[in-house]
Every structure is written in structure tokens, then in C-alpha cells.
Amino acid sequence: MRLGVCTSCFRDVSLPETLRWAGEAGFETVEIPCPPTRDPSTWYHGAGLNIAGLDGPGRDAFVSALDDAGLTAAALAWYANPLDPDPGRRDVILSHLQRLVETAATLGVDVVCLLVGRDPSLRLGDCIAQFARLIEPVVRQAESSGVRLAIENTPRIGWQVEDLPGNAAFCPELWEKLFTHLRSPAVGLALDPAHLYWTGIDPLSALTDYAEKVFHFRAKDAETMDLRRQDCGILRPSGGWWRYRLPGLGAIDWRQMIDRLHELAYQGAVVIDHEDPVWQGSLDKIKTGLALAKRHLGQFLP
Length: 302
Fold this sequence. Notes:
Elements: E1 2-6, H1 15-24, E2 29-33, E3 44-45, E4 48-49, H2 56-69, E5 72-77, H3 87-107, E6 111-114, H4 124-134, H5 136-145, E7 148-152, H6 172-181, E8 187-191, H7 193-198, H8 203-209, E9 214-219, E10 221-224, H9 226-232, E11 242-245, H10 254-263, E12 269-272, H11 283-298
Helix pairs in contact: 1-2, 3-5, 4-6, 8-10
């Protein structure tokens, strides 16, 4: 297993600078967001990768930046809503995902992370059925190019409607529906245990049950505040009774989690996804928080 970091937390830092820091900090790999842009003049956009700029020189510059930092790219990612109710926006999203798969294959990156998303006018099960129909060209592209699609399990509460999930792939019951509709070896999960924990699902059991479908693992922790939950109740998930933390600062037992990944012979990356509000607010705090998380996880990784 390779320990890495999602570069998305470095919002005000360029991707070349982010890669240099990650390598110097001892990380081995990165997950890189790839937002759509039409600017072909540069290969990066903030701390993300600009695939429109990956012509010959751009591609060479990106590969060199990774090599110089001693890093690999574990995954390319774009967490937009493929079920956007607006047909025009939806087409843009699906087209970009297909280009992202093509780019990943060209770069030798074997995982692309994405969301199912949600159309708020549809039931969750119907959202999954619609996603399966719409994503079919992307799945075919992935199958033919040796790229795996890893679907993130975040609930994305309030993305479209207050206090309602905005991503129809946040629990095992919905994963079953997803894999029934998309019977493809190229479709699996980008598993983030923090989302499972605060929604009341045992992350260790979910990891074990879906081990063969875990293509990518995002290391994030979570904690709950019982007194606040007493006021707002679990039916108000955006009520402030839980928050994301860096690994080692929340409630998840990372010794058990990493040990189970070893037991299941997981061969992918473990990337720290930094959404901890305590360790944000400045670049120094972000870097310090990531260093703390790396030190905690490093106890359990060879």
C-alpha cells in the first residue's frame, strides 16, 4: 500500500508546488482533482490537473513533476453531479468524465474517482438506474482502456436540498443497487470510512464485505458531538453534530482499519483526504495537520 494525499486541500497552492511539498513530506502518491477548463496554456489549475493542457509539453511537465517529487498518481478525480437536472450541465459533466478516463489511460493512472450524484426529483434507487444508463459510455471507455471507476461514498448532504443526501451511493444497500445495474469489473468504490462512521455504518464491516470492489481508499476520520445531536436530532445531518477529522483525531480505529486492508490484500493507495476544520485556515496548519495524520497512519504501514 502507498500512503498519499488528496491535493484538493491545497486550494491556494499550485500543483507543482503541492507535489514538491508532498514528496518532501514523505508521501508516496497523490489523488489529483481534474476540474474542466478550456485553457490549453498550462497543465495545472490550482492544485488540480488541467487535462486540456496535457499536450506533449504539458504531459512531459506533469510526469517530470511527479518523478522529481518521487510520487505516483494514484487517481484522477472529479466529484461533480452526473445527474444534474439541467441537460446541458449534465452533458458537460459526462463528456468531461469520458475525457478524464482517456487521460488517465494515457498517463498510466488506473483509477478515476467520481460520484453518482443525484437528481432531487427522483428517488435514490431511480437515481442509480439513471446513472447506470448515462454513465455507460464512460464505463465502456474504462473497460477498453484498463481504467477503473471508483465511486465515492460521500452522502453530500445538502448538495441539492437541505439536509438530504446529494449522492446516491452512500451506503451498502445502495452499492448493491449500483453493482446490480452496472455489472462491470471496471466499476467499484473509492471507500471513505468517515462517511460511514457518522451515518451509523460500521466502516470495518463495510470494507470487509466489499473488499473486491474497493479500488481506492480515502483516509478520513470523523467525530460526533452527542450534546449537539441531542438538540437537532439525526434527521438534521447538517445540524453540526458531527465533523470530519484527520486520521487519528476522530473515532475510527486506524490500527484495525489498516490491518484489515492488509488482511484483505488491498494493493491500492491510502490517501489522506483533509477536511478537518481544526487544521485548516492557513497553509502551515494544513501541512501540520497532514503531517500529524501521516505520522499516525505510518505506524500501521510498512
